[in-house]
Amino acid sequence: MWSRAPGPSRRLPRRPEVTTDNPSRTPESTAFRTAIDVVRGVEPRIADAIGAEIEDQRASLKLIASENYASPAVLLAMGNWFSDKYAEGTIGRRFYAGCRNVDTVEAIAAEHARELFGAQHAYVQPHSGIDANLVAFWAVLAQRVELPALERAGVRQVNDLSEEDWERLRKALGDQRMLGMSLDAGGHLTHGFRPNISGKMFHQRSYGTDPETGLLDYDAVRAAAREFRPLILIAGYSAYPRRVNFRIMREIADEVGATLMVDMAHFAGLVAGKVLTGDFDPVPHAQIVTTTTHKSLRGPRGGMVLCDDSLADQVDRGCPMVLGGPLPHVMAAKAVALAEARQPAFQDYAQRVVDNAQSLADGLTRRGARLVTGGTDNHLVLLDVSGYGLTGRQAEGALLDAGIVTNRNAIPRDPNGAWYTSGIRLGTPALTTRGLTADGFDEVAELIDTVLSRTTPGTAKSGKPSKATYVLAEGVAKEVADRSADLLAKHPLYPQVDLG
Ligand SMILES: *Cc1c(COP(=O)(O)O)cnc(C)c1O
């Protein structure tokens, strides 16, 4: 559950746990009920949808590795008049007047981020992980391509360049190289792949994992970097179940003159919670680190950039370079979430996330399932469902029928491609917030194995086995859904919120 002590100081007395003996009388119940009532006065269907959403979330066994449950304090910090304020620019240097309180909020969020992660600089404006990556890309491009061009031309800003020099600079900005993890090894679309704008901005090459072990092959990364000589070496993933050694990645980047950027969107909570330390903590090794704030970090939906002082000025230009006006209400919620993450209870949470992933992996392996890389040492497990004779799409559908929410995901060299896939990605951050323990995750493994062992592919119109449709044996969906409801009932979600 969420830690409740206020602020970052460990010396402050902890507030007493709010009793949930009578949840209808907690401040959280009053706050959310009142908010929904006020909304109901204008558009009752939206009030109903908000109420229905908490019920759906309470009822589902959520194993989506990128999702979590933010605390009531984080959620409530977002619903207020900060939403009304325009605040383009950065702390103390805004293009709009009247930003005193936004400055306060942004400065506190940035301070928490710097202290929590040990970063020289933090930029808390990005609206999402994708936006954080764009800010980081353009900061590196500005520092390494634009500034040298201005210096060569003897001018201070782009507006002072001649038409000819400007055209040359525009071409140079679009002619840079990025080396990142391949999608099927667990990399992310925003790391230079064609369907994303990053792939249109950069020449991209990717590194993969060892075909035998499924593990990141640093020698192969080094060889690719030596040959390709990228401007940016990007590390980070959304579906790789192991730790990455960022000390080695930085050595490789330095050797070829690349800037090391780490996208820790998925595992920021494990860094914040001091589970990933030393060589596995990206912050001391990378020049620039990006993240989301809503995944394992358990904050509001949003993004963030951490960097060393050399890149700070360029990063602070994120708005209006690539971002629209900041969302001050979300920055307020980021500050609250980061304050929570600085509590000792968050370190305990992060450790339990990893222990629970271990238990889930062991539970699946013991029941005969095959895992990519054979296990996990972070918050996620990548299950290869081809052993059950299914595609990822079929497995995802059958599990959902039984109330288990996951997502399909390609596995390395996936024979079924990125749409049908052969994998299911499972993550423990959300259910760990609900309080599930290692034993609970062993039961989750059993439920997953039960569903998948009793699912068979459907038949396509051609008469061949379908990659999309499936048949789940009679009664299994109900049996598993009942057992999952029993498990969830032991770990109520938002126990202090009763909407009456
Ligand atoms: C989730 C994710 C993103 C994108 O985050 P959004 O907030 O959805 O934009 C970027 N990079 C990685 C590695 C991610 O896992």
TrEMBL record:
The lineage of its organism: Bacteria, Bacillati, Actinomycetota, Actinomycetes, Kitasatosporales. Keywords: Amino-acid biosynthesis, Cytoplasm, Methyltransferase, One-carbon metabolism, Pyridoxal phosphate, Transferase. The modification N6-(pyridoxal phosphate)lysine is found at residue 295. This is Serine hydroxymethyltransferase. Its cofactor is pyridoxal 5'-phosphate. NCBIfam families: PRK00011.1, PRK13580.1. PROSITE patterns: SHMT. The record marks 294 as: Plays an important role in substrate specificity. It is an enzyme of class 2 (transferase). Residues 1-28 are annotated as: Disordered. InterPro entries: PyrdxlP-dep_Trfase, PyrdxlP-dep_Trfase_major, PyrdxlP-dep_Trfase_small, Ser_HO-MeTrfase, Ser_HO-MeTrfase-like, Ser_HO-MeTrfase_PLP_BS, SHMT-like_dom. It is found in: Cytoplasm.
